[in-house]
Design goal:
With 344 residues, the chain is an alpha/beta fold. The protein has 3 domains: 81 residues, Orthogonal Bundle (Arc Repressor Mutant, subunit A); 105 residues, Periplasmic binding protein-like II (D-Maltodextrin-Binding Protein, domain 2); 101 residues, D-Maltodextrin-Binding Protein, domain 2, CATH 3.40.190.10. The chain is built from 9 helices and 11 strands. Strands 3, 4, 5, 6, 9, 10 and 11 form a 7-stranded mixed beta sheet that branches. The longest helix is centred in the first third of the chain and has 25 residues.
Length: 344
């Protein structure tokens, strides 16, 4: 009979693409991983890995067994979830991969889960959306909270189950005292080409959204500062360096006296989605975590305008100038990062 732990190792190898990456991810030595895969080959009676002096890749039969391994592991996870559902209280470990601003927004919910369910261990790590989904598929994490910057329908994630948590509106963030902070002045993005803009580097999801917005308004930026991390960009705006398009949740409470948010001429938003594997649904530890996150963003409407001291509603043109909200305001959530992949 094929060993389940070795099948899981093969599953990781298929996802990571190399013995070194698999070993690094799992905390094993490369030689230990190689030995266990060789043992699996002996159990299977066929060659699963094609090895050269510099690389190792799956053979055709290795790929077939890796796909079977994914099915087997999904069934085992579903069985564990079914048994766990009959326990008196949620317990075990839930590992979450998320972007920093999402972690801050959801922190009250996660803290409450730890207090209410002391037998449940929560582990949260920072990851960009693609890495988070890869780790979810390879079973390195149990839940991914990822952002979607697209303007079309929600992204397809084959083999996974997504739930939209939050609509996080994009705003123009400008320093207090900047001419664009005068809300009785009509906002024309086309007139901002001479402004120093701050954005993420090329290739980051937020950069793609930034470029799309400015392109749609005919803005050709002359001066551009590029930094990873939405929180860093927000801080630079607060220091008076330039202006930026940011999701509201990226503007932290300590910047509330330094920034003014302006609504964009055409509403744009990123969305935050909670993503899990189908087999893990019904597992009490995961369900109470998801329920707490959903309740946190649902408190006031899920429009991203008010999550506990993170961000504030962008003031309407013509209304009194309004810096970022105080911690007495509780941000919300609607139907779905310190620094990250433009990730924030």
């Amino acid at each position: 009979m094929l060993d389940l732990h070795r099948l899981q190792l093969l599953h990781h190898f298929a996802a990571r693409g190399s013995i070194a990456a698999t070993a690094d991810e799992l905390g094993f030595s490369a030689s230990a991983v190689s030995q266990q895969l060789a043992a699996l080959e002996r159990e299977a009676g066929v060659a699963l890995i094609e090895r050269t002096a510099r690389s190792a890749t799956l053979t055709d039969l290795g790929g077939r067994l890796a796909r079977h391994a994914a099915t087997v592991l999904e069934a085992v996870e579903a069985a564990e979830a079914d048994l766990a559902a009959h326990l008196d209280a949620p317990l075990g470990r839930v590992v979450i991969a998320t972007a920093p601003t999402a972690a801050v927004a959801l922190a009250p919910a996660l803290a409450a889960v730890r207090v209410e369910h002391p037998a449940l261990e929560l582990v949260v790590r920072q990851e960009g959306p693609e890495a988070a989904l890869d780790q979810l598929r390879s079973r390195d994490v149990d839940l991914a909270v990822v952002d979607d910057w697209s303007t079309g329908p929600a992204a397809e994630r084959p083999g996974l189950v997504s739930r939209r948590l939050l609509r996080d509106p994009l705003v123009l963030a400008v320093p207090v005292g900047h001419p664009l902070a005068e809300l009785d002045r009509r906002l024309e993005l086309a007139a901002t080409a001479e402004e120093p803009w701050i954005c993420a580097p090329r290739g980051e999801p937020s950069r793609e959204a930034f470029d799309r917005i400015l392109r749609d308004h005919g803005v050709v930026v002359r001066t551009r500062w590029e930094f990873e991390g939405l929180a860093t960009i927000a801080t630079l705006v607060g220091r008076g360096v330039g202006i930026a398009v940011l999701p509201r949740l990226a503007i932290a409470e300590h910047l509330r006296d330094r920034l003014v948010e302006r609504r964009l001429p055409e509403p744009r938003a990123r969305h935050l989605d909670a993503v899990v594997r189908p087999g893990s649904r019904g597992r009490p530890a995961l369900e109470v975590t998801l329920d707490a996150m959903w309740a946190e963003v649902a408190d006031e409407g899920r429009d991203g305008s008010r999550i506990d001291g993170v961000g504030a509603s962008a003031a309407a043109d013509g209304a009194p100038a309004r810096p970022v909200a105080s911690h007495h305001e509780r941000p919300t959530g609607a139907t779905t990062d310190p620094g990250g992949t433009g990730v924030g």
